[in-house]
Structures are given as C-alpha cells and as structure tokens.
Amino acid sequence: MKQVIIIAVFLFTILSFSQKYEFKSIVDIEASNVKSQGNTGTCWSFSTSSFIESEIFRISGQNIDISEMYSVRKTYEDKAWNYVMRQGKIQFSQGGLAHDVLNSIRDNGLVPEIAFGGLYQEKVYNHSKIVPQIKTILDIYIKNDKDSEHPDWKKATSDILDKEIGSTPKEFVFDGKKYTPTSFVKMLKFNATDYITLTSFAHQPFYTNFVLNIPDNFSNGSMYNLPLDELTSLTEKAIKNGYSIALDIDVSEKTFSVKNGIAVLPNNVADNKKSLTELVPEMKVTQEYRQTEFENYNTTDDHLMHIVGLLKDQKGNVYFKVKNSWGGNSKRIGNGGYVYLSEAYFKLKVISVLLHKEGISKKHRKKMMI
Prior knowledge:
Layout: H1 2-17, E1 24-28, H2 43-60, H3 68-85, H4 98-108, H5 130-143, H6 153-164, E2 172-174, E3 177-179, H7 181-188, E4 195-199, E5 209-211, E6 222-225, H8 228-240, E7 245-249, E8 256-257, E9 262-263, H9 287-295, E10 303-312, E11 318-323, E12 338-342, H10 343-349, E13 350-356, H11 362-367
Parallel strand pairs: 4-6, 9-12
Antiparallel strand pairs: 1-10, 2-3, 4-13, 5-6, 7-10, 7-13, 8-9, 10-11, 11-12
C-alpha cells in the first residue's frame, strides 16, 4: 500500500508540472505592429516609440506611427556632445534608455514615420559603422594632437549621421497639414514631462529618486526607488488601468526565449529547457537576492521593450505581455514578436519601468512627492 501511495504522489507531481503553457488574456492595451530594430542597438527608441504610440492612442484615440530614427538621430548628437564635454571619460555607444526619447521630444519634437523613416541597408537598419566613425572624430578632437587635423567635430558628426541615418526634416505635411517637429507634438497633446521612471534597488533609500549608475544612462536620468513588491504590483495595476509600460530589463538568461516567446525563472536550473514550453516551479525572488545579482553583474541593462498587457496561465500565474523589436515574421520568433514574461523573471531582471505619472496611485505619488 505504501508503494502505491508513493507512485501515486510521484505521478501527481509529474502531471502537475508537465503541462504545456495555456495562456488567457487579462488585459490588452492598444499597440502598433511589431517592428525590427535590425542591426542596431536602438531598442530604447523602438520600445519607447511604441510606448508613445500607445500613449497617443490612449490620450487622443489616434493611431500614429512615429519615427524611431528621428529620436535616434537627435540622441546621437547629444551623446557626442556629452562624450566631448566629458573628455572621452564615458561610454559612447548605440545604447540608451527610455527617458532619452522623452528628452529628445522635449528638445527636438517628434515626427511621423512617413516624414522620416531613416536609411536602410539591404532592407534592414544597420548602425554598425556609426559609433566607430563618430568616436574616431571625437577622440581626435579630445586628444588635440598638434600633428593631426583638428576636426570640426559637430559638422563631422552631423555628416556621418546624415549619411548613415538621413537628414531630418525641419517641416513636413501630415494629413494635409504642415507641421514642424515641435508643432506636431503640440497637435498630439503629448507632454514629455508627464512621465517618470521607477526602479527598485536596495543601495538607495526607498521613496526617493536617484541616478542609477548603469552604462546606458549617459544622460543621468533619475529614477524613483520603490520596494520590489510595490514596483511589481504598481506595474500590474497600471496596466490594468490602461497604462502601458516602457520596460528596461536583462534578457541574458537562457530562459528568456524569443523563439518560444517566453521568459521565466525556474527554481531548478535543471528545468531551464523544459520551462520554455511547460510550466515549472519558479524562483521566489527577494529584494536581497535581486540586489546581489545586480551588484555581481548577472543582471544588467540589456534591452528595452514595451509592456502592453497581462496574461495568466492555467494555474493562475500572471505574466506580462511584452512587445519586442526584433521583428515578428520569422520561424525563429514566437508569439508574433511578443514575449510572455513571468512575475519572477520581472522581479529579478527588471532594471526600470517608465510610465505616465497618473498610472501611479495617489498614495505612491504622495510618498514620492510627485
């Protein structure tokens, strides 16, 4: 009898966890079609532009395809200035964060995709030459070697960007009306100052804001610090209330799978492969463990995406529906370019989230004095 009970328990355990994923939508927020950033490190612009498109729809009901490359083109100029003023003692790369798009909108306005789509190379974006070319010019200027030509780095940078990305328009026609990038933003009623970034790290006091020292935060954007459980619940509540989220997260884990369209955090490493297609027990992530993984570089600011909904599996576990920017029409990409990201993965790997301040409860806004 004892042996029968043991076998029954074993079979129950196997059957309990050997289940293919079955997802049911909880919330779906209006979002534009999945795009591809191509061979570029501009996920920060693609994800945040997608986020802004959803915000424009939420605010005005308009479906407008905005230009990712306009913000990229303008932000490269800011990066070059920053690199020169810091005399080369800072990273110069393709990377950036969500607030860089908002900074660009504030300073340079916004244009629709039809007004400026950027330049393609063999039908894909390719920025592999941009950083090396510009950095060479900037380093020559910073070094100020008397034996070398002292370049006009601003003009040289602009020339490279014109060649590789394109020259941005000063005015354009949209729906039969003439706009400048600034007047276009006003027409959309989009206010870049209405958005804030949230994070959760134990090396800074909670309910205060600070500059997170990560390589891609070249513009020193500040973030509001919340306890991990509050950050998670606040993010979910915002989505339930119709506010989508721009997400900065580490995607280096083997259990982040674009092919399967899933991102989970198995409690047992032996379940890694299985977890890509079947339910497995997930890790219980604490604030302390999250901090350790950040400080030992196992969690870094790899990638930005756009949270556009919530789902649950057959056991009631909640997942974030995340829109990626690696295309959606490929056999190597599952869920049409979306990734279903578990709460456990979010808690361990999220770097920050950006959202409209009204997507945050009054209670938390009061605590953070915003």
